[in-house]
Amino acid sequence: MWTVFKKELKSYFLSPIGYVVIGILMLVFTIFFYLTTVAYGSVDLGSLYSYGVLYGLIITVPILTMRMFAEERKNGTEQLILTSPVSITGVVLGKFLAAVGVIVIALLASFMYFGIMCYFGTPSLTLVLVYMLGFVLVSGAGIAVGMFASSITENQVIAGIITISFMLMSIFLPNLGDEFPDISIMNFYQKFPYGLVSLAEVVGAVAFAAMFIAFTIIVMQRRKLVK
In which band, very low, low, confident or very high, does the pLDDT at 135 lie, cut at 50, 70 and 90? Predict the structure, then answer.
């Protein structure tokens, strides 16, 4: 698993993908740092990360995940994965953790905003870490969905569209009426902006990600049996 993790994480930065994802997230953070923190003279960074989840992940999660398995299948290198000494579970988890790793790197870069606020006030490091924990959990849930989408098609664009569609529906469907199912992954980030770690949200995000990781493993196992 860790061999796959290191290989995939390295591949993100041998291509523009890792830099694009980090750049987009930093742009979103910068915009909302000004709109929600600087403009109001606040030292609270909760809104910055909340809006980062809402708007940043819609763009970056599909970019991170659409190539995961679809590219392997299109290029004909999927057979190497299926016959690899690393188990399918190890491959899937390695790819998942590598994508999460890119998000974590972007969050580490976002510490610059905490440093800036230290010049103007006394922001709480504990609260910032709580915001980041929630961000990672919601990102993981979204990445798991995108990874599953990539596993069921050889077309990266289709995988990306499926992921974007899910992300948009998960955010906007509940607001259209009670007749629509509430599948919003934002439900896992309701209390984190207030500096609260909710067991229900943590377990919900982890369970949601685990479910789609399991779906991906099942898809790849079936493909291995067919091969």
Answer: very high
Q: Which residues contact 31 (CB under 8 A, 6 or more apart)?
A: none
**DSSP-derived 3-state class of residue 122:** coil
With 0-12 CB in 10 A as exposed, 13-18 as middle and 19+ as buried, what is 191? middle
DSSP letter for 38, please.
Answer: I
Pick from 205, 195, 77: nearest CA to 138? 205
Q: Is 222 exposed, middle or buried (0-12, 13-18, 19+ CB in 10 A)?
A: exposed
pTM: 0.91
pLDDT tens-place string over residues 113-127? 998 888 887 888 999
Q: Count of residues for the chain?
A: 227
Q: Do residues 213 and 140 make contact, with C-beta atoms less than 8 angstroms apart?
A: no
Token look-up 């922001």 returns 123
